[in-house]
Amino acid sequence: MPGNKLNQKPTSKPARQLLFSEALQHKRLASTTTNPQTSSPPTESITMAEKSHSTTMDRILQEITTVSRRIEGMDASITSLTLETKSMRAEIAGFQSRVTGLEQRMGLVEAQTTMSRDRDQDLLYLRHKLTDMEDRSRRDNIRLHGIPENEEGVDVQSFLRSILPKLTSLDFDPPIEFQRAHRVGPKRPGNSSRPRPIIACLLRHNQTRQILQAARKQGPFQLDQYVIRITADYSKETNDRRKAFLALRPLLRQLEIKYSLFDPARMWVTKNGVSKDFYNPEELQIFLDSFQPQSMDSTSISGSHDNGGDNEGNLPPGQEKTNTAQYASIKGINRRMVSRLILHVEVKKISF
């Protein structure tokens, strides 16, 4: 029959596959419905998965929160470090500016020190030259100590012309002539026991040398009841150095060191066959200190080892003392003279 389904043509292949898939799906659903024990309910598995997922998310959120807090703390620390770094940079910049200023000042100070040192050297040289010129201008002068006041009368030159040949036992040919002669300093009030010295400038230098040589050899001269000493005339600087050298004579004698004081102020010493010159009393004091002398007594200074040097210098009669009390003050005397003698420290190094 035309209307019978069996007589109909079979469906196409895609339609058959679709029908097969639908039938297979219905079969699976039916098997699931008929055997409920073979699989867990879908609702319960979904709930457990959601809980596990929720727990994991919470942990992740906690970790994120912790990391965020740490990052915030690090940001704060970085901000603080940045501020400190800026402050340190500002301080370093200030230090650099101060150091630059100090370097500039030090440069100025060094320049001024160099200039001052050069000026000191120039001043030292000029002062030495001035002292040398003054000493040279006094080479024809002699000083006579111990002549009572008013003994010379009105004419000092005539008085000296009469007594000098007697004192020195010299026969002057031609006779002594003076350029000038007078007392030194203002007259002391009353009858002073310390008469003013007489300074005389001779016309001929060879006669001046003869008188000074006789004074060195014969020592103090006797005129009636008076003791008269004749010395050379030096500048104050040279005279101070000579006094400082002469103050060291007791120590030189105690150490058995031969010595001579030459013009204008040079001490020559000999120890164990070795000779040495000293132009500065302070240097001689240091040299003597190296021997570590023992305490001084009167017997150790009784013998003199003067080697034919100059006389006692511009010291008035009776001023020379060699007792223990004076020796105790020798070093102090020399130390007090340092300020006046410092200009002579480099005398040997200065060339003319």
Topology:
Blueprint (H helix, E strand, L loop, with lengths): L12 H22 L7 H96 L3 E5 L10 H13 L9 E6 L14 E5 L2 H14 L2 E3 L2 E7 L3 H12 L1 H6 L3 E5 L3 E6 L2 E5 L2 H9 L34 H5 L1 H7 L1 H4 L11
Antiparallel strand pairs: 1-3, 1-5, 2-3, 4-5, 6-7, 7-8
Provide mean pLDDT, rounded. 75
Question: For the terminal residues, how far apart are their CA atoms?
Answer: 163 Å
The percentage helix is 40-55%
Multimeric status of the protein:
single chain
Strand-pairing-aware structural class:
alpha+beta
Characterize the main sheet. Answer: 5 strands, antiparallel
Strand order across the biggest sheet? 2-3-1-5-4
Which band does the percent of strand residues land in?
5-15%
Report the radius of gyration as a whole number of Å.
59 Å
Provide an overview of this structure.
The chain has helices spanning 13-34, 42-137, 156-168, 205-218, 236-247, 249-254, 281-289, 324-328, 330-336, 338-341; strands at 141-145, 178-183, 198-202, 221-223, 226-232, 258-262, 266-271, 274-278. The chain is α+β, with helices and mostly antiparallel strands. The chain has a 5-stranded antiparallel β-sheet. It has a 3-stranded antiparallel β-sheet with strand order 6-7-8. A hairpin with a 3-residue loop joins strand 6 (258-262) and strand 7 (266-271). The protein is rod-shaped and about 175 Å long.
